[in-house]
Amino acid sequence: MMELTDIIKEENLVYKKTPLMTDKVLSYCPGCGHGTAHRIVMEVIEELDAMEQTIGVAPVGCSVLAYEFMNIDMIQAAHGRAPAVATGIKRCYPHKFVFTYQGDGDLAAIGTAETIHACNRGENITIIFINNGIYGMTGGQMAPTTIEGMKTSTSPYGRDLKSMGNPLKITELIAQLPGTYFVTRQAVHTPAAVRKAKKAIRKAFDLQKENKGVTFVEIVSNCNSGWKLPPVKANEWMVENMFPFYPMGDIKVDGELVKTDSN
Amino acid sequence: MGELKLMKGNEAIAEAAIREGVDGYFGYPITPQSEVLEYLMMEKPEERTGMVVLQAESELAAINMVYGAAAAGKKIFTSSSSPGISLYQEGISYIAGAELPCVIANIVRGGPGLGTIQPSQADYFQAVKGGGHGDYRLFTLAPASVQEMADFIELGFEIAYKYRNPVMILSDGMIGQMMEKVELKEQKPRWSDEEVVKLNGSWAATGRPATRERNIITSLDLDSLKMEQHNHHLQEKYRRMEAEEVRYETFQTEDAEYLMVAYGSSARIAQKSLVLARTKGIKVGLLRPITLFPFPSKALMDLVPQLKAILSVEMSAGQMIEDIKLAVECKVKVEHFGRYGGIIHSPEEVLQALENQIIGG
User: Fold this and answer.
1) Using CA atoms, how far apart are residues B5 and B176, in angstroms rounded to an integer?
2) pTM of the predicted structure, to 2 decimals
3) What does B276-329 look like in DSSP terms, one character per residue?
4) Residue pair B106/B80 in contact by the 8 Å Cβ criterion
5) Taking chain A, what is the end-to-end CA distance rounded to the nearest angstrom?
6) What is the ipTM of this complex?
7) Which CATH number describes the domain made up of B248-359?
8) Residue range A18-257, CATH number
9) CA-based nearest residue in chain A for residue B197
10) CB contact, 8 Å: B90 with chain A?
C-alpha cells in the first residue's frame, strides 16, 4: 500500500514553489489574481538567475505589501510614484533589472504623469500593471479603468460615462509613445493564460537587458471581493465584460504597434 | 588651498555636488534655483564623474526619483524652491520615514502660494518642524554665503549618512543668486557599486545576494505597535542630533546686553546692523544658527543672564522667533523684525527695529 509520504518525493516533483516567493501567507483574497501574478514575476527572475541583479518597486494598493511575498530587494513607493522611483534606481544602476508592480488606481489615476513620462523617456524598466477595474484595498471604489455600467462603492448605480468620465485605456495610450518597446495585455485566470502571461513577463525582462525602452505587461485580473462575486463567477464576468473592452494580446512588439481591428 | 572661483550660490552648490562624488541629481526647474540644474547640465557630470542628472516631469517625480536612488544606496542631491518644495513634501515624508540619506536644497522665495520669485525665509516652519505628514525632522542647515552653499554639501552628506536622515539646506534666493568668491574642494571619487554595497548594503535595496536576507525600503507598517516603536527610534535619532550636532556662531556677544538672532541672508544683514549699532554705542551681539534643526537652544539660554532683550531678524512674519522663545523659556523679552513676501530688510531698518522695539520698547 502506497503512503502519501511515498508520493511526496523529490523525484516525483512536477512543480516547486520558487524560493523567490517567501513563505508568508498571501494577504490577498482567495481567488484573487495577485498571488499568481507575483509568482510568475518571481519565477521569471529565478529563471534568469537575477535575484542579485533585480530591484523591485511596490505600489500603494492591494499589492502595497508585495515586498512581504517577493523574496528580493524591494522598495515601497508612494501612491502612483513607482515609475519615478524606478527611474531613480535604474538611472543609477543601468545594468540591473528594475521593475514596478502597480495596480490600476496607482498607475492610471494618481500616477498617470509618472507612468506617461517614464514611458515617454523610454526608461529601461519593466512595468507590471494589474488591472481589475476597481480599488481593492480601500474597499471597492471606482478606478480609472472601471468599465461603463460597472458597480463600485463610489459608482453604486454603475459607472455613468457622462458624469464620471470614461474608462482609461492607459496601455493603448502608452503604446503610442516612442519610449515603449514591448506592450502586451495578458490575464492569469486559466493555466493557459498564466503560461502566456509568464512568457510575456519573461520577454519583458529579457528585453530590459537590451536597453530599448519600457517593457509593459498589463494583466487584466479579477477582484471577486470588490466585484462581489465568487471567484469562479468573477473570472466568468471578467471574460464576458472586461476582455471585450480590454482585449488580450500584444499591443506593441519590437517598438512597432501591432495591427488589430481595434487600433 | 582649493580652487578659487567667483560663482553664484546656485552654481557653487551644483559644482560642490559634483566634487562631492554625488551619484545623481533629479530636479525640476523653478526660479530662483534653476541655475542648479542648468549648471549641472552644462557641466556634463556624467563625463566628469559618472554622476547622473535628470530633469524630471514634476517635483513629485523628482523627489521620488531621489527616494528610489537613495533607497538603492546611492548618494543623491536635489534642489528646488518654495512651491516646488511644497510638492516635495510627500516624498520627503517617505524619505524620512524610510530613513534614507539625501540632501535637499530649498532656495526659498516669497509665498504663500505662487508668491514671488524674490528671496524669503518664510519656509522655516516647513523645514524645521517636519513639512510633510507624520512626526519627523529634517536636519536643517542654513548657509549664509556662497562658500557655505558649497561647504554644506559635504557636511550635509556626512550628517545624512551618519544618521540615515534627509538633510535640508535651507537657503534663499539671495544666497542662490548672488556671486561671491568660493573655495572649492578637491574632486572626491564616486562610490563604486561594490563600495555602495560595502557601505550601505546592510540596509539599502542594492539587489539581494544569496548571502543575506532581502532589504526592504518602506515607511509602512500596518502593525501600529511596530510603527510606534519605529517612531520612538526616529525620535531618539532626533534627540541625538540635538545633543551632538548643533552648530552656530556668535559675534560680539561677550559684552552684549542685546542680542540679534538671525540665519542665512538675514544674518549677513544683521552683521552690518551690528556694526552700525556698535558705532552708536549699543552693546548688541549676534547669534547665527547654522543648524536650524537642531536649534542652538542651549547657546541662547546660556546668554540669557546677560541679556535685556532679543531681536529675531528673519525675512518672514516671525517663524524662528517661536524657537527662540521656547529656547529662552520667556525669561527675556523676544521681539521679531523682518520684511517679507520677497522684500529684503536693510541694515538700517534692522537697526531701527533694534532701537525702537528692543531698546526703546
Assistant:
1) 15
2) 0.96
3) HHHHTT--EEEEEESEEES--HHHHHHHGGG-SEEEEE-SSSSSHHHHHHHHHT
4) yes
5) 60
6) 0.96
7) 3.40.50.920
8) 3.40.50.970
9) A52
10) yes
